[in-house]
Amino acid sequence: MSETILSLDDVHVSFDSLNGKVHAVRGVSFDLHYGETLALVGESGSGKSVTCRSIIRLLSKNASIDDGSILYEGKNILAKSQREMRSIRGKEISIIFQDPMTSLNPTMRVSKQIALPMIHHLHLSKHEAMKRAIELLKRVGIPNSEVRYKDYPHQFSGGQRQRIVIAIALACNPKLLIADEPTTALDVTIQAQIIELMKDIQKKNGTSIIFITHDLGVVAKVADRVAVMYAGKIVEIGTAEEIFYLPQHPYTWGLLQSVPTADEADEELYAIPGAPPDLIHPSKGDAFYSRNPYALEADRYYEPPYFQLSPTHFAATWLLDERAPKVEPPPSIQRRYATFYKKHGGKP
Amino acid sequence: MSDQNVLLQVKGLKKFFSREQKGEIRAVNNINFDIVEGETLGLVGESGCGKTTTGRCIVKLYHPTNGEIIFDGKDIARIRSKRDQLEFCRNVQMIFQDPYASLDPKKKVQDIIGEGIDVHHLAKSREDRNHQIRGLLATVGLNPEHAGRYPHEFSGGQRQRIGIARALAVKPKLIVCDEPISALDVSIQAQVVNLLKKLQKERNLTYLFIAHDLSMVKYISDRIAVMYRGVIVELGDTDELYHYPIHRYTKSLLSAIPHADPYKEINRSRIIYQFHEGDLNGELHEIGKGHFVLSQDNQVEAYKEQLKNEKKN
Ligand SMILES: Nc1ncnc2c1ncn2[C@@H]1O[C@H](COP(=O)(O)OP(=O)(O)OP(=O)(O)O)[C@@H](O)[C@H]1O
Ligand SMILES: Nc1ncnc2c1ncn2[C@@H]1O[C@H](COP(=O)(O)OP(=O)(O)OP(=O)(O)O)[C@@H](O)[C@H]1O
Ligand SMILES: [Mg+2]
Ligand SMILES: [Mg+2]
Q: What is the ipTM of this complex?
């Protein structure tokens, strides 16, 4: 129903390295709607950050976007010059990078770093921009912002730097906000405060958000839809409800099982067995094959296509093929299914 | 616990930073705690409350403004000779919060991890060195074949694991883990937490585990200290603290943990802590066995009563 602000179609990104070509993103497709929050979750190294950096064309020198298309408001991002990209970045599309220190200038006062994009893109006066910078620092929860705005990045704690980066990203009221682990360095109370702030701004301005996080609790709180990545691909995508209560891909099952629940004893935490896949020589079948307790013979040789489960829910696993044997998901996942059917009725 | 060996004692630790104008920042303002050998103490609290500063004082990256830190019976401020300093560095390692900033971008991973092995002469030969490095990479869930790569070729979470491997390389007694898992996905968090626990058992390691993710902290910590604005407001056994938080800040912190359950998240509300002047007066008093709360003398009885009542219900 709602219109699309961003559309990725079969995007492939690779890096040249001494050891060979690293296929970091291998055919990622998704649409993002106006005013929507899409959470990107998945294994460390699965290509979440690289996917996001492709959208704003800020990849390292040894990277190339080999195939696919990225449309922002219908315009082809991949055909734009770096100059055109510079005027889009920071103004229409903002990104909060995963390593806050790398996106702050260590020799510039933080107030100036927040004010500059407002002077540049919104043509505010210096005085006006400075006033708003202090206001933003307050909104992201920096105590004594009237005094501390003059400090340099190294004078702040890890989480405070992260919040300064968030303030910079929000400064120009972007249409699209890409947030790469924005709250990872924050304690839960400030995290909650930042999420409330982002939601607030989203409601007011209709901002679209891509939210990368490892914290499935945060996903549950922010996401309209969720995409689960593994080895450079989206293995499952759906509404938050579908991913949390009707997950179909064994990797998604593994992720959900790893979440520590409130009242378990000190038994070992569930961790997905095995090592992450080799992205220099990706396997020809399903990349999750060797770690998948539910793997079928077919997974070894053939890449699973997307199976559609609802207008919004897709999963790439051969388990959904009609020829596949019926498998029982792990008990904690079955409990999630039960929660869903209890709420909506329908098959147990 | 009394017959166990106290490995680290922090007594009256203060660390203030002075600023160009407008006074000083009291990052750590008089904190006290012990860590027993083989134990994990979790240190949690608001961003900016002084956790990293505490950790950095313990590994001697900062000089405390005041107070004492005693490691293995020795006051670390009195370590003078080069040999003792070297030994201290080997025994007390830190895993840093910002994985990227703490790894030298011009060094290959094998040399980042190998540095400590070289400095402390822990390898018998070149081969032994390589063997150890490969073993460490495998231990932290990285591909040993990637030893020849540079830090920027890794994802955020992979870089964090390089930092863990580097700390483990010198076989320390105490590791200050500054948010070692926050950059990792849950499955790898689980792997690392299981790994840290396993290494602890095998090598009798002691951890100060700084974090803000309370659900993981709970798994790894024997005891937890909650900090707020440079002060410890509550300290106790993990289970006790989770079930019977007493200080208002601890309550608000626990109530803000998001659950991987959207149906619950929609309706859940959190307790918001309103800070009042004077909240941080007083000192830690024991209100139940091993359970300490920041309080003034005249508040202690009320807290004891409150804990008793909450345990009854
Ligand atoms: N500059 C580079 N050169 C070579 N390989 C790279 C480079 N940058 C990233 N990679 C590789 O690309 C893959 C995807 O990395 P990316 O940073 O997107 O992971 P991620 O999903 O964001 O992980 P994390 O959750 O750990 O941040 C990783 O395997 C990483 O090693
Ligand atoms: N080098 C410094 N100079 C001045 N102030 C500093 C310095 N380092 C830290 N601070 C300040 O001291 C306080 C405590 O910082 P610290 O890094 O210990 O916090 P933290 O508890 O680790 O927070 P986080 O969870 O965000 O990492 C903060 O207010 C911070 O701004
Ligand atoms: Mg990343
Ligand atoms: Mg810190």
A: 0.82
CB-based contacts of A61: which residues, under 8 Å, 6+ apart? none
User: In Å, how far is B274's CA from the nearest CA of chain A?
Assistant: 12
Q: Domain coordinates of chain A in residue numbers?
A: 240-343
From B36, B211, B212, B174, select the one nearest B94 (Cα to Cα).
B174
Check residue A264 and give its pLDDT. 55
User: Which two tokens mark A101?
Assistant: 């220190």
What averages of pLDDT result for each successive group of 10 residues across chain A (348 residues)?
A: 88 92 96 97 92 94 95 95 90 87 88 92 94 92 87 88 90 94 85 89 94 92 97 97 97 90 65 81 89 91 96 96 93 94 84
Which structural domains are found in chain B, ordered by start? 6-312 (3.40.50.300)
The CA–CA distances, whole Å, from A247 to A236, A273, B80 equal 8, 19, 59
| pLDDT tens track for A335-347 | 999 999 999 988 7
Alpha carbon separation from A65 to A20, A61, B53, B253 (Å, rounded): 16, 11, 42, 43
* DSSP annotation string for chain B: -TTSPEEEEEEEEEEEEE-SSS-EEEEEEEEEEEEETT-EEEEEESTTSSHHHHHHHHTTSS--SEEEEEETTEEGGG--SHHHHHHHHHHEEEE-S-TTTTS-TTS-HHHHHHHHHHHTT--SSHHHHHHHHHHHHHHTT--GGGGGS-GGGS-HHHHHHHHHHHHHHT--SEEEEESSSTTS-HHHHHHHHHHHHHHHHHHT-EEEEE-S-HHHHHHH-SEEEEEETTEEEEEEEHHHHHHS--SHHHHHHHHT---S-HHHHHH---PPPPP-TTTT-SEEEEEETTEEEEE-GGGHHHHHHHHHHHHH-
Instruction: Indicate if ligand 2 lies below 6 Å from the C-beta of B29.
Output: no
B48 in reach of chain A (CB within 8 A): yes
Identify all chain B residues contacting A163, using CB atoms and an 8 Å cutoff: 47
Spatial neighbors of B276 by CB under 8 A, at least 6 apart, are none
- Coil, helix or strand at residue A348: coil
Query: What's the DSSP call for residue A288?
Result: T
Short-list A230, A224, A344, CA closest to A283: A230
User: A160 in ligand 2 pocket by Cβ < 6 Å?
Assistant: yes
Looking at CA atoms only, how far is residue A156 from chain B in angstroms?
8
The model's pTM is: 0.89
Please give the residue of chain A at the shortest CA–CA distance from B139.
Answer: A275
C-alpha B235 – ligand 3 centre gap (Å) = 34
d(CA B311, CA B313): 6
In this complex, is the C-beta atom of A265 within 8 Å of any C-beta atom belonging to chain B? no
| DSSP state string for B209-275 | EE-S-HHHHHHH-SEEEEEETTEEEEEEEHHHHHHS--SHHHHHHHHT---S-HHHHHH---PPPPP
